[in-house]
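Thread: "does anyone have the structure for this chain?"

Original post by V.I.:
We have the sequence but no experimental structure in hand. Need at least a predicted one for the grant figures.
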Amino acid sequence: MEIRTRILDEAGKLFVRMGIRSITMDYLAQELGISKRTIYENFKDKNEIVLYSILKGLNEHAEAINKIISESPNVIEAIYNIGKKSHEVFSQINPVFFHDLKRHYKQINELISERGGIHNVDSNLMLLRKGINEGVFKKEINIDLVNVFLQQLMEMFHSDGFNLSGRFSKEDIMRSIIKPYLVGICTEKGLELLKEHDNLLEEYI
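Reply from O.Q.:
Generated one for you, C-alpha cells below.
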C-alpha cells in the first residue's frame, strides 16, 4: 500500500473514532509510525487530509451500496441490506466527527453536501429505478423528487439537535416515517414484498 493511501486510511479511521479536531498531525504520525515530514511531503495540510479521507470513505461506501443493489434479488431486500450496512457504518462513527465537520470544517462540509452528502444520490437513484423496473415502485412517481426527499430525510436524521434515536425507538421511526412512505410508493407487488421483509426492515432501518 502506497504511503498516501495508508495516511488517508489511518486518518479516516481516527477521525470517525475520535473526532477531527482531536487528531493532530503529530498524533497521526505517531499512529502511523512515520515522521510528520513524510505526511507533509504527501499532503499540504490537515484540511487536505480531512477532505480526501472523507471522499475516499464516501467512494468506498458508494461502491459497497451499488454492489448491494446489483446483487440483491429485489429492491425491498436491497433496502434491508443497505439499512444493515449503513447501521454498521454509522454505529462506528463518533457524533463528534459530524459536529467537528459542520462547525470547524464548513467548506469541506459544504463540498460534501454538494456531492450529495453522506448518502449517495446516484446510488439512491439506482435503487429507485431498480424498484420501478421490477414493478415494486409505482411508475408515476417522480424519482428525482423522491430522491431529494429521502436525501433531506436522511440528512435531518443526522443533523445536530435531531437525535431521533435518543427520543424514539427504531420501531417507532420505521412505523411512523419509513414504512408509510414506502407503502405510498409501492405497487401491489411491492406491498407483498414489504410484508415478507417486515421483520428484517424493522431490525435495521
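V.I.: this helps a lot. Residues 3-204 form a domain with the Tetracycline Repressor; domain 2 fold (CATH 1.10.357.10).
O.Q.: and The CA atoms of residues 72 and 78 lie 5 Å apart.
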